[in-house]
Design goal:
heterodimer, A: alpha/beta, four-stranded antiparallel β-sheet, B: alpha/beta, Rossmann fold, 2 domains, eight-stranded mixed β-sheet, three-stranded antiparallel β-sheet, 10 helices, 11 strands
């Protein structure tokens, strides 16, 4: 198969509040190449999370075209949707909020495997769950732990395993590391990168941290108030931004090296 | 004559407003022995200076800040060390010491206007001419239309405006020390930059001693003068903010290396292996030794003390002190 894995044209997402209709995403187009990572940058209210949910068919009022591997996502029927869900999955920001507190890590994976008919027996599901935990860098023994017995980084690993275990090739991650501490964030970012390199996973990464984007994304789109204001290779957009809003974002991001240098020039350090 | 701030206090005094030495906070689970949450923390807050406490979650930075103003959660007590205030400083909560927290939406009362919430914390003798003082306060924190803001309810303001209102509320009691606990973490980056600028300006104008609590080293580099890096309840390295250019402690080095870079000159990040030990399972000896690439036998046995390095600050590490191997 050739061509981009995900192709989005003139996507619009709207929400209704009584009689009022608010458009959160106002006609966005982009494509994500196979094995690539597209970064979606924006602040709160930019529509980036609505966009993320819409491309997976999780929003109700959507217009435009979302094509996944040549297939129209928005008009999928029940069976087609289940197959699509196996190939395209979501990872959320809050690693504890997205796990059932009363379900052990292994059981959370086994449930997904059974729903998708990928494991017939309990033993089969357990064996596969163990395999996927190891894939994301966890000891298989963690299958017996409840979410509250895991650290933030481990929970996010379980979430990743749950998304991967059904055979996903396209992952949409909405701020996957912003709830994590710096030292753990680095471990998870390395994991995301190695999944892209070794398993050919295609990513759509939603976030506000430009340094994370620079590190992870091949291409980025910058969103503001539902529209794309700038797009291009991450290396270009984040080092020589053309749009004033991207420039403002870049100037606002706190950065250790840059701040120290600026202050030593001003003589305030 | 030296320049003075809006409260008539002389600027530029090098004397500390608040000095804390050997501060320790204990947690007392029912029927069990004391667990140490934070220990051996020395702080020296000076007017017109910003001191940052930085570290990952669970390092004890917020607990240290809360202990200064008597805001510790139930079951915890400040039971080691001492806090000294400069002579003449009024050290009642809300007067000498004021707090600004992470989530302004949570801290403001949704059923009262900003005006009535500020009026409530004004010192008694100022309630008479309250209107003028409140307008002046709101102008200080960057509002151009104080009358409208005073009449607004919190939900009518954006996150950044709510945090400005919180700052006005904190300044109403004319504090000497402002404790800002993750003041910009809940805000968007562009708004964060504005609030940080405001904080730096207020610190200068009002000659405040600011204690900044944050997990973000970038924020520290932007506005702090001095920094204390905490790990698992202890300060591991402290000194002027330039120490971030060339830190000594392996934990601080690791934290800086774990940050992705804006210039993209890194294909793989060097994280720190493992994770922060939870309270009650902190290791003996140096608390960082299980995760430390430099650890040797001595690190497992004895806890390193903070050792000064002249003007450059202090570090608690066996490997990088005198007679160390790094």
């Amino acid at each position: 198969m050739s061509g981009p894995l995900m192709n989005v044209e003139d996507l619009r997402v709207a929400y209704r509040a009584g009689r009022r209709k608010v458009e959160a995403v106002k006609g966005v187009s982009f494509e994500v190449g196979r094995g690539k990572c597209l970064g979606v940058v924006g602040e709160s209210g930019s529509g980036k999370s609505s966009l993320a949910r819409a491309v997976l068919g999780l929003e109700a009022e959507v217009s435009g075209r979302v094509e996944f591997d040549g297939q129209d996502v928005l008009s999928l029927k029940r069976a087609g949707r289940l197959a699509f869900r196996r190939r395209a999955q979501m990872v959320f920001q809050d690693p504890i909020g997205s796990l059932n507190p009363r379900m052990k890590a292994g059981a959370a994976l086994a449930e997904v495997l059974r729903v998708h008919g990928l494991a017939k027996t309990r033993a089969e599901a357990a064996a596969q769950a163990a395999h996927w935990l190891e894939t994301v860098g966890m000891d298989a023994a963690y299958a017996g732990r409840f979410p509250h017995e895991l650290s933030g980084g481990q929970r996010q690993r379980v979430n990743l395993a749950r998304a991967l275990c059904v055979g996903a090739e396209f992952l949409v991650a909405d701020e996957p590391v912003s709830a994590l501490d710096v030292s753990v964030q680095a471990q998870i970012l390395n994991l995301l990168k190695s999944l892209q390199e070794n398993r050919g996973i295609t990513w759509m990464l939603i976030g506000h941290d430009l340094a994370v984007m620079r590190h992870m994304a091949d291409d980025v789109i910058v969103m503001k108030a539902g529209e794309v204001v700038e797009r291009g290779p991450a290396a270009d957009v984040l080092s020589r931004p053309a749009h004033p809003y991207t420039r403002e974002l870049l100037a606002s991001a706190p950065n250790v090296a840059r701040a120290l240098e600026r202050r030593s020039r001003r003589g305030t350090v | 004559m030296k320049p003075a701030d809006s409260n008539g206090r002389v600027k530029g005094g090098a004397d500390a407003v608040l000095t804390a030495s050997g501060l320790g906070v204990g947690f007392f689970p029912e029927g069990k022995a004391r667990l140490e949450v934070v220990g051996e923390v020395d702080l020296c807050l000076r007017p017109g200076r910003t001191t940052a406490l930085v570290g990952e979650s669970g390092c004890g930075k917020s607990i240290t800040a809360a202990s200064l103003g008597g805001l510790l959660p139930r079951g915890m007590a400040l039971d080691r060390g001492e806090i000294r205030w400069a002579a003449g400083a009024e050290c009642r909560p809300g007067r000498g010491l004021a707090y600004v927290f992470q989530d302004p939406g949570e801290c403001l009362d949704p059923v009262f206007t900003i005006g009535s919430q500020i009026r409530e914390v004004l010192p008694k003798e100022e309630r008479g001419g309250a209107g003028e003082r409140m307008s002046a306060l709101l102008r200080t924190v960057g509002f151009e239309d104080p009358a409208r803001v005073l009449a607004s309810y919190p939900h009518q303001l954006s996150g950044g405006m709510q945090q400005r209102a919180m700052l006005a509320l904190a300044l109403a009691g004319r504090p000497r020390v402002l404790v800002a606990d993750e003041p910009t973490t809940a805000l968007d980056v562009t708004v964060q930059a504005k609030i940080l600028r405001l904080l730096a300006e207020l610190q200068r104008q009002e000659n405040l001693a600011v204690l900044l609590i944050t997990h973000n080293l970038g924020v520290v580099a932007e506005i702090a003068d001095e920094v204390h890096v905490m790990y698992a309840g202890r300060v591991v390295e402290s000194g002027p903010v330039e120490l971030l250019r060339n830190p000594r402690h392996p934990y601080v080095k690791g934290l800086l290396k774990a940050l992705p870079r804006l210039d993209g000159a890194d294909s793989r990040l060097e994280g720190i292996e493992g994770s922060v030990p939870p309270l009650g399972r902190r290791p003996a000896g140096c608390r960082f030794h299980p995760r430390c690439p430099l650890a040797r036998a001595v690190c497992q046995e004895r806890e390193p003390e903070m050792r000064r390095r002249g003007e450059e600050g202090a570090v608690a590490c066996w490997a990088c002190g005198e007679g160390g191997w790094a």
